[in-house]
Design goal:
- This protein is α+β, with helices and mostly antiparallel strands.
- It has three domains: 76 residues, no CATH class; 173 residues, D-amino Acid Aminotransferase, Chain A, domain 1 (2-Layer Sandwich); 77 residues.
- Helices cover 31% and strands 23% of the residues.
- The strands form two sheets. A seven-stranded antiparallel sheet has the order 3-2-1-7-4-5-6. Strands 12-11-10-9-8-13-14 form a seven-stranded antiparallel sheet, with helices on one face.
- A hairpin with a 2-residue loop joins strand 8 and strand 9.
- Helix 1 packs parallel to helix 3 and helix 1 crosses helix 4.
- The protein is globular, with a radius of gyration of 21 Å.
- The mean pLDDT is 92.
Length: 362
């Protein structure tokens, strides 16, 4: 009886999430200044493609939206609702996600790669200063003078709550709040890190934010496929680079150079240069091959997650740095293009027969 009730609840939750995703895409589509219309031939091609892959028709809203944004039609766009309610849940063991994907766990489960230096962690309410457990009082005492730091939630997504942190004699740059007051505001599950010294070419894109390389990788047996890589660039004066928080994303070609356009938010399209004046087209990302090889190596350490989004930086000496990894990452179809690119059909065919761990996805 309990299993039947749980199944009904899971199906209802999945339906609600799907509806939320559809409404978001429809709202974003309606906000575009120009909207493309799918022809009857295109609609038929899309439905035949997906019926061949998953055995049923799909909503075409995402296809129209991404076609309208980029001007590029493709049957291989992945509907946002389908991605979040089915594909991720089939690719990843979501019951394990919340603990393992905690940013405070990143340097623990991936110790053999560079990370930003973390000074303080709060994990489930417990404090750790430079890796050693301390009381809250001791944590406050040790953080009376700190400069050039970032404080960030360790479980939230989209850069929510990431702020610079300067402390002089116990007083912070957060409207004059004390260290203890800042800790109380963040409550639990947060971290304080030294601001990363990034490569000069990454810093040139926007000096106030750590501009990251978001890589989506897919593990298929003993092979790790690099689905895409995009660079995320902050806007003038911003600390974070997330596209959902106002930043922009541009696709990185296989040669490590940026393509012509970046996309920002849900409607800001075809940006050709950064706020700092860097022209995107042809701009070379430093140490790109090293970053890709690092991701391939690290993904083999994630046996419960076949679809992973990696946020990578490049430090001032050209080494890859892992900022975080995400088992519930978004799909960058604006910046990158349709679906999973050349691997779209393969990935969906491999994943669709699997059971769905959606119930622990949200």
């Amino acid at each position: 009886m309990f299993k039947k009730i749980k199944k009904i609840i899971d199906l209802y939750t999945k339906y609600c999430v799907g509806q939320i995703q559809e409404r978001y895409i429809k709202k974003s589509l309606n906000a575009l200044s120009e909207r493309k219309t799918l022809t009857k031939v295109q609609k038929r091609e899309i439905q035949e493609f997906y019926k061949g892959l998953i055995g049923k028709k799909i909503s075409l809203t995402s296809h129209q939206y991404f076609y309208s944004r980029s001007g590029v039609y493709s049957k291989e766009y992945v509907p946002t609702y389908l991605y979040h309610t089915d594909i991720i849940g089939k690719a990843n063991m979501m019951p394990y996600r919340n603990a393992l994907a905690d940013k405070n766990m990143c340097d623990i489960i991936l110790p053999d790669v560079k990370h930003p230096k973390t000074i303080l962690k709060n994990m489930n309410g417990y404090f750790y200063f430079e890796g050693e457990p301390v009381s809250k009082e001791d944590a406050v005492r040790r953080c009376q003078n700190m400069h050039n730091m970032l404080i960030k939630p360790s479980l939230d997504k989209h850069g929510t709550g990431v702020k610079s942190l300067e402390v002089t004699n116990g007083v912070t740059n957060h409207d004059g709040a004390t260290v203890e007051q800042v800790f109380d505001k963040y409550k639990k599950n947060f971290q304080i890190q030294e601001r990363l010294k990034q490569h000069e070419r990454m810093s040139a894109l926007n000096p106030t934010s750590v501009n990251t390389i978001r890589i989506l990788s897919y593990r298929s047996g003993m092979e790790v496929l690099i689905v895409y890589a995009v660079v995320r660039i902050g806007r003038k004066g911003q600390v974070i680079d997330n596209q959902s928080a106002g930043g922009m994303s541009a696709n990185i070609g296989k040669d490590g150079r940026l393509e012509k356009y970046a996309y920002g938010g849900s409607v800001e399209d075809k940006i050709t240069e950064t706020d700092s004046g860097v022209v995107l087209e042809g701009y070379e990302i430093p140490s790109y091959d090293k970053v890709i090889e690092t991701v391939k190596r690290l993904h083999f350490k994630m046996p419960f997650f076949d679809l992973v989004g990696w946020d990578m930086a490049v430090d001032d000496v050209g080494d890859p740095v892992v900022l975080e990894w995400n088992a519930n990452t978004g799909l960058s179809q604006s910046a990158f293009g349709p679906g999973f690119g050349e691997y779209t059909e393969r990935i969906i065919k491999e994943l669709w027969p699997r059971s769905n761990n959606f119930n622990s996805n949200w």
